[in-house]
Write a structure and sequence with these properties.
Radius of gyration: 17 Å
Number of domains: 2
CATH class of the largest domain: Mainly Alpha
Order of helices and strands: HHHHHHHHHH
Distance between the termini: 29 Å
Number of strands: 0
Largest sheet: none
CATH topology of the largest domain: 434 Repressor (Amino-terminal Domain)
Strand content: under 5%
């Protein structure tokens, strides 16, 4: 487990779970029901919008044959990396790389780039230039972007998100 944890350190357990279910060709909704969990809860964890908890992690690990404590260890390492990022002195991206028109509905001074990361990441991957996207990747990191971005967006820019994920993060949505 230690070697695997070192590789996955800082990754949200939901992202690992999503890949594991896909690898095993299991649908998340059916899997959630099979372990006695609401599909919405598992979906929120997979999307990185909710943290893993101990009872759920034990049920998932048992059902998938994973080592006990694996998912909670991932969660703890993820929480540590998020807290370090939050506490870092550079808790704002280089705003000079963003066009002011990108956030026409607010001002940069009012954006909390940590608390509103989902909004910021989606906006930039929908409408951003290469420079804006690269600054967003530098600031948030690939794992945070993939765990946060809304891939089910009904926005007319949803295709832009998919193209930018593929071009800049080599991720097929």
């Amino acid at each position: 487990m230690n070697a695997t944890i070192e590789i996955l350190k800082g990754l949200h357990p939901g992202l690992f779970l999503q890949r594991e279910l896909k690898k095993r060709k299991l649908r998340s909704g059916h899997f959630a029901e099979s372990i006695g969990e609401h599909p919405q809860t598992l979906s929120a964890i997979i999307r990185g919008r909710r943290s893993m908890n101990i009872p759920l992690s034990l049920r998932i690990e048992r059902a998938l044959g994973l080592e006990e404590g694996f998912l909670m260890t991932l969660q703890v390492h993820y929480d540590i990396s998020e807290e370090k990022r939050r506490l870092s002195t550079n808790n704002r991206p280089d705003c000079s790389k963003f066009r002011s028109t990108l956030f026409w509905d607010t001002s940069f001074e009012h954006i909390d780039f940590i608390a509103h990361k989902r909004y910021v990441i989606n906006r930039i991957f929908e409408r951003g230039t290469e420079e804006e996207i690269l600054e967003t990747i530098r600031f948030y990191g690939k794992d945070t972007i993939l765990a946060t971005i809304d891939l089910a967006a009904t926005s007319p820019f949803a295709e832009n998100i998919k193209q930018n994920l593929k071009a800049y993060l080599e991720y097929e949505a």
